[in-house]
Amino acid sequence: MHSEQASPDGALDEAAAAFAALRPHLFGIAYRVLGSVVEAEDVVQETWVRWQGTDRSVVLDPAGFLARTTTRLAINVARSARSRRETYVGPWLPEPVDTSHDPAVGAERAEALEFAVLLLLEKLTPTERAAYVLREAFDYPYAQIAEILRLTQANTRQIVSRARKRLAARRRERVGRAEHRRLLEAFVAAAQRGDVAALESMLTADAVSHADGDGARGAARTPVAGAERVAALCSALPRFWPDADAEAVEVNGAPGVLLSREGTDLLLVTSSVSDEGIYELLWVMNPAKLAAFARSRRRFDP
């Protein structure tokens, strides 16, 4: 503890320094709970406002206070976001983040960061999502998670266990990173050539394609399932393929490909890959989310 009466400016500088050190961690929590860079940044900013207005002389654990504030704010935003997303045109996907500079986005480990996992987390309630994130990504003890969420430890353990099982039921054994990238880049190249047979050979029989465009032209309004249908769809995106430049990028810790033309980003694609092939394709075509990805790529630029 310290006295803030002698030097208010110094105390605020100290508070700002403590907050800045924890900011990546706080962003990592909010982003995983919300699946939105913009909303996560808003939550972190509101946490800073509350930290400034708090009597910090009585806060014995600043890191705990800030994590608790961030998590509760994120849960509140997630509850209101769910109703807003009901008016979204077509499938909704999380906002992608370039993780090439910060592989875990403020986490002790990269759990609950992959694009496909964030999408699965959307099927959980905001409280369930927060409990899973705090435990799996940041290794918070159950007692602290229970205090943050205002639950009993027993209830918290049940929530995390249930979330693990629900996510595990939807995930498959993954291939290595190099093979993942090779297959995705080969898939995009085949799509640019319009080679439907090659596309189909790289997909599992039950492959699913999700395209987030919020009404953008060329984005399917519903998920497309089955290797034949997905291959046909991917080869029939004429406004994207001709003369487009394909750049290998990192999306939420996994390989991705960004297509652009004359400096304008057209789409971002990432995938889920097993030994049997690509079983899930995630296409981001919403201009706002492409812009968010571009901003995330600049976050660590000097």
Describe the structure concisely for a colleague.
By secondary structure, the chain is an alpha+beta fold.
Shape category:
globular
Largest sheet, strands/sense/barrel: 6 strands, mixed
Strands, total number: 6
The whole-angstrom Rg is 21 Å
Helix and strand composition category: alpha+beta
Residues in helix, %? 40-55%
What oligomeric arrangement do these chains adopt? Answer: single chain
Can you walk me through this structure?
The protein has eleven helices and six strands. It has helices at 8-34, 37-52, 62-84, 115-121, 126-137, 142-149, 153-168, 177-193, 196-201, 227-235, 287-298; strands at residues 203-212, 224-225, 245-251, 254-261, 264-274, 277-284. Helix 5 (126-137) packs antiparallel against helix 6 (142-149). The longest helix is centred in the first third of the chain and has 27 residues, at 8-34. It is globular, with a radius of gyration of 21 Å. The two termini are 35 Å apart. Mean pLDDT is 89; it is low at 1-7.
Topology, pairings included?
Elements: H1 8-34, H2 37-52, H3 62-84, H4 115-121, H5 126-137, H6 142-149, H7 153-168, H8 177-193, H9 196-201, E1 203-212, E2 224-225, H10 227-235, E3 245-251, E4 254-261, E5 264-274, E6 277-284, H11 287-298
Parallel strand pairs: 1-6
Antiparallel strand pairs: 1-2, 3-4, 4-5, 5-6
Helix pairs in contact: 1-2, 1-3, 1-5, 2-3, 3-6, 5-6, 5-7, 6-7
